[in-house]
């Protein structure tokens, strides 16, 4: 098949959307499909044998690291030249709308993958969006995009319910894969642990972007837990503020590849704080790494964690819930081992190869529907 992937983010950005697209393109190429990637901003023009068409972009106010794709004729020209069988809209918000319109004009079916809760995102950046109505406006915009897609893929039950309530139909659950060869308990590093836990502390860590929508300020609730050393892996606009709040924590900055995998596996407890995660890939990576997880019991994590068996779910509405559960896990090695072992077993079949092959099945089905409508 020939697949045009129109994505709101791609390399060199490191985030959930860019990483998912990268894994999709890897697998498509490995299984004989041809892909074209359309992405905003500067970056590589080729990836894994696929051409990457770059379009004009504008830095998002309040979030300079995120280039927002601008509408233009380049998308339709690239799409017409490539002649795809299907267009994959990766987390469509801005550039995805341009791709959707181009696909409709060219008579190509679209599969829209919901991945970013932009309304929830806006809630944490009121200064950037300049209006108290931004959340409602973005919700209506999102609903319009997904109602016009031929098929919509959602990463969790919460996302399914969210879009269904907005009148979006043809919803299908499509979760993310995890690189089990990379994220593995065997990557646990005694050297890292000695460096981070110089007094034998329990290592409690967060991995991800250091940004307002991740609610990383809540890590301060864990700063004075006895016998605990906080480890913060990642970078982002609130890193400086967070370092001032957590002077005793270890900040590693952005890590990738084997360094990231070693950091995950060397933790005792992984904690996530954000409430607006449609999936939460870092939870899955921590589980694959054999680490006990404490995550919010809302959104995507509620699908990934079975409370008391594959992790612990805290209630974001309860002020002491996060602290109490992390404190419990930090005091109980047997509990951590129980949660980690069950979680590793739960993710054992969630390879990227399996989930991208499932995605290709969705491509084939919408192409078949398109042929049937034409007939």
Give the overall silhouette: globular
| Strand order in the sheet with the most strands | 3-4-2-1-7-8-9-10
Distance between the termini: 20 Å
CATH class of the largest domain: Alpha Beta
Integer-rounded radius of gyration: 21 Å
Tally the helices: what do you get? Answer: 15
Residue stretches low in confidence (pLDDT < 50, at least 5 long) are none
What is the name of the CATH superfamily of the largest domain?
Answer: Glycogen Phosphorylase B
Molecular structure report:
This protein is an alpha/beta fold. It has two domains: 2-177 and 351-374, Rossmann fold, CATH 3.40.50.2000; 185-346, Rossmann fold, CATH 3.40.50. 41% of the residues lie in helices and 20% in strands. A hairpin with a 2-residue loop joins β3 (46-47) and β4. The two termini are 20 Å apart. The mean pLDDT is 93.
Keywords summarizing the entry:
375 residues, alpha/beta, Rossmann fold, 2 domains, eight-stranded mixed beta sheet, six-stranded parallel beta sheet, 15 helices, 16 strands, 41% helix, globular, Glyco_trans_4-like_N, Glycosyltransferase_grp1, Glycosyltransferase family 1 protein, hexosyltransferase activity
Give me the secondary-structure topology:
Blueprint: E1 2-7, H1 16-30, E2 34-40, E3 46-47, E4 50-55, E5 57-60, E6 63-69, H2 74-82, E7 86-90, H3 95-106, E8 110-113, H4 118-123, H5 126-129, H6 134-147, E9 151-154, H7 157-165, E10 171-173, H8 190-196, E11 202-207, E12 228-233, H9 239-245, E13 250-253, H10 257-265, E14 269-271, H11 281-288, E15 292-296, H12 301-304, E16 312-314, H13 321-331, H14 333-346, H15 352-374
Parallel strand pairs: 1-2, 1-7, 2-4, 7-8, 8-9, 9-10, 11-12, 11-14, 12-13, 14-15, 15-16
Antiparallel strand pairs: 3-4, 5-6
């Amino acid at each position: 098949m020939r697949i045009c992937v129109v994505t709101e983010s791609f390399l060199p950005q490191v985030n959930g959307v860019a990483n998912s697209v990268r894994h999709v393109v890897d697998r498509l190429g490995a299984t004989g499909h041809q892909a074209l990637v359309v992405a905003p901003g500067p970056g590589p023009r080729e990836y894994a044998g696929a051409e990457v068409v770059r379009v004009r972009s504008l830095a998002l106010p309040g979030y300079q690291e995120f280039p927002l794709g601008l509408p233009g004729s380049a998308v339709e020209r690239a799409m017409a030249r490539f002649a795809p069988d299907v267009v994959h809209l990766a987390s469509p918000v801005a550039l995805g709308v341009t791709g959707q319109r181009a696909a409709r004009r060219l008579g190509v079916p679209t599969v829209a993958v919901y991945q970013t809760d932009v309304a929830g995102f806006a809630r944490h950046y009121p200064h950037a969006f300049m209006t108290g109505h931004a959340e409602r406006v973005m919700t209506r915009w999102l609903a319009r995009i997904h109602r016009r897609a031929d098929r919509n893929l959602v990463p969790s039950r919460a996302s399914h319910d969210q879009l269904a309530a907005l009148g979006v139909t043809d919803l299908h659950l499509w979760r993310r894969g995890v690189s089990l060869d990379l994220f593995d308990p065997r990557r646990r590093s005694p050297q890292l642990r000695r460096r981070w836990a110089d007094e034998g502390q329990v290592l409690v860590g967060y991995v991800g972007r250091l940004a307002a929508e991740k609610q990383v300020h809540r890590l301060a609730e864990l700063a004075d837990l006895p016998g605990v050393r906080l480890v913060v892996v990642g970078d982002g606009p609130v890193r400086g503020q967070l370092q001032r709040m957590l002077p005793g924590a270890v900040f590693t900055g952005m890590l990738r590849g084997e360094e990231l995998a070693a950091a995950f596996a060397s933790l005792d407890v992984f904690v996530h704080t954000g409430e607006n995660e449609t999936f939460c890939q870092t939870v899955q990576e921590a589980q694959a790494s054999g680490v006990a997880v404490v995550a919010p019991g809302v959104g995507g994590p509620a699908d990934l964690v079975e409370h008391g068996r594959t992790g612990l779910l805290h209630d974001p509405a309860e002020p002491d819930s996060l602290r109490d559960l992390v404190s419990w896990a930090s005091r109980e090695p047997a509990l951590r081992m129980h949660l980690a072992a069950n979680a590793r077993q739960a993710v054992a079949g969630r390879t990227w190869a399996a989930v991208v092959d499932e995605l290709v099945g969705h491509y084939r089905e919408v192409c078949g529907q398109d042929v049937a409508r034409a007939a």
